[in-house]
Backbone:
């Protein structure tokens, strides 16, 4: 009996370590609701694009888990193929979880991708890193300001990734780039206290919506488009205002559609059928294996990316028909969350993933 009791205590103290996302909503309701609408709350089970690519990449091993399901209590088993994702395990369905992010102590630079190192936790009450020096502890957790946390919070997963053949799958940050900038743009201050008691009457908190390319208003802010036209020459300048490349996800394509409109009709366009025809204005990754183009990059032996680098300014020049007064030139930047080529490898139910979505457009009028 005594043995049984000790065993029980031991298991409870292990399992009480992880506080799931939903448990935070009791006190951090606003932050929880924001987070629920973010891509971080998505997991293998709820992100169709990710799940289909992952299953295609490897039907046994789920090594994507280190970034996509990092809080899993059986991470090693998932990564090595001894276990498959289980939708009844909350440490898996939580995705990039509150608990996980708030316990990152530092980031180890590594070859294939960086590695988050989590702070060792008190078995019964975890310590969460935040920004406030003297944040109160709650009855559920301790709080601590750790500047290393804010400097590294995004770098463990978002920096870069190579496959086993040393081919770059994505690269978003420069060598010594920290995450203070990422937090400024992607977690702006918004109205409302940090938790419901709000004893210190805090008026603002950092948004946990983690807005990105999925949000129609936010995605307008990444790139400026300037254009000038004279006679039959059109110059289009793209200005990347972001400290990361335009393309940092190999499933995506971002491209320009340029139309010259006369009396409401299109008299010229930069491509006929597919935006890929205008190579200079089609931004995407492509991967090669055995001399052939492949879609899922996990076993690629070579990779290329046509990109707009961090803060890069690029001018594209086009020969267009001689302009007349009243002509309009419409320049639109689009994103395909899953580029058309993806359909060669996977079938997607959510058609919005393939449909080009407007990032922004400008129209100039000839007078
Ligand atoms: C080093 C960390 C890391 C690893 C390992 C990783 N990913 Fe990702 N993945 C990310 C990050 C960060 C994003 C978000 C990037 C973005 O939106 O540009 C992402 C986004 C994606 C997306 C886009 C999801 C969407 O809905 O828009 C797909 C698809 C994807 N990953 C597939 C995979 C697959 C398949 C694997 C395993 C073979 C994998 N990833 C392994 C970090 C990683
Ligand atoms: C029982 C209520 C309660 C629960 C549940 C709770 N917290 Fe807290 N949390 C607080 C209080 C109170 C503070 C202190 C706020 C302050 O001092 O202004 C706090 C502070 C924090 C801070 C530090 C804030 C800062 O500005 O530095 C973080 C990070 C945090 N909580 C994360 C979490 C996460 C993640 C969860 C869920 C796993 C969670 N909390 C669950 C009550 C709670
Ligand atoms: C544990 C790994 C991990 C950490 C740490 C992390 N992310 Fe992510 N992030 C991801 C993954 C994985 C995705 C894609 C999820 C999906 O689509 O299923 C993602 C998606 C995003 C997106 C959504 C982009 C879009 O497609 O709209 C943004 C923005 C983002 N992360 C910003 C951040 C910021 C800012 C930080 C640091 C505060 C951060 N992330 C920390 C793994 C991580
Ligand atoms: C100056 C503001 C700014 C900063 C700083 C910034 N971003 Fe972004 N980021 C954006 C905007 C705007 C978008 C959406 C537009 C786009 O992707 O074309 C974006 C898009 C993204 C995406 C989604 C891209 C995709 O196609 O799926 C991820 C992931 C991301 N950022 C991560 C980061 C990380 C990590 C950092 C820090 C190294 C960072 N961002 C710093 C403004 C910023
Ligand atoms: C992708 C990583 C990530 C995830 C996931 C995440 N947070 Fe945060 N959180 C941060 C960062 C970064 C900060 C800012 C820290 C700073 O100010 O230095 C922050 C700040 C906070 C704060 C303090 C807010 C403020 O304005 O000072 C609280 C409370 C908090 N998070 C709770 C949560 C809860 C609850 C969840 C889940 C519902 C969650 N976080 C999910 C990265 C994350």
Residues:
């Amino acid at each position: 009996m005594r043995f049984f009791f000790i065993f029980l205590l031991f298991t409870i103290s292990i399992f009480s370590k992880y506080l799931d996302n939903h448990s935070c909503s009791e006190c951090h309701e606003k932050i929880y609701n924001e987070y629920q609408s973010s891509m971080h709350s998505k997991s293998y089970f709820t992100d169709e694009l990710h799940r289909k690519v992952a299953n295609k990449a490897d039907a046994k091993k789920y090594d994507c888990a280190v970034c996509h399901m990092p809080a899993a209590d059986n991470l090693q088993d998932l990564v090595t193929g001894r276990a498959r994702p289980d939708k009844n395990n909350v440490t898996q369905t939580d995705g990039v979880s509150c608990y996980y992010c708030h316990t990152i102590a530092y980031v180890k630079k590594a070859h294939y991708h960086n590695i988050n190192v989590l702070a060792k936790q008190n078995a019964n009450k975890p310590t969460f890193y935040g920004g406030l020096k003297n944040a109160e502890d709650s009855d559920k957790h301790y709080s601590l300001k750790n500047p290393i946390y804010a400097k590294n919070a995004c770098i463990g997963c978002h920096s870069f990734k190579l496959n086993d053949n040393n081919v770059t799958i994505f690269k978003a940050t420069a060598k010594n780039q920290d995450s203070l900038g990422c937090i400024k743009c992607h977690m702006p201050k918004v109205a409302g206290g940090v938790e419901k008691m709000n004893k210190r009457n805090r008026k603002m908190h950092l948004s946990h919506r983690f807005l990105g390319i999925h949000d129609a208003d936010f995605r307008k802010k990444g790139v400026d488009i300037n254009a000038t036209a004279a006679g039959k020459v059109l110059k289009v300048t793209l200005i990347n205002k972001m400290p990361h490349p335009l393309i940092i996800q190999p499933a995506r394509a971002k491209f320009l559609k340029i139309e010259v409109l006369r009396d409401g009709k299109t008299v010229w366009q930069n491509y006929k059928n597919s935006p890929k025809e205008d190579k200079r204005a089609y931004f995407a990754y492509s991967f090669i294996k055995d001399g052939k183009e492949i879609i899922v990059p996990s076993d690629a032996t070579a990779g290329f990316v046509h990109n707009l680098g961090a803060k890069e300014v690029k001018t594209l020049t086009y020969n267009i028909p001689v302009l007349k007064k009243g002509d309009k030139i419409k320049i639109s930047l689009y994103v395909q969350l899953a580029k058309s080529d993806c359909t060669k490898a996977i079938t997607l139910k959510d058609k919005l993933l393939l449909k080009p979505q407007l990032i922004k457009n400008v129209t100039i009028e000839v007078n």
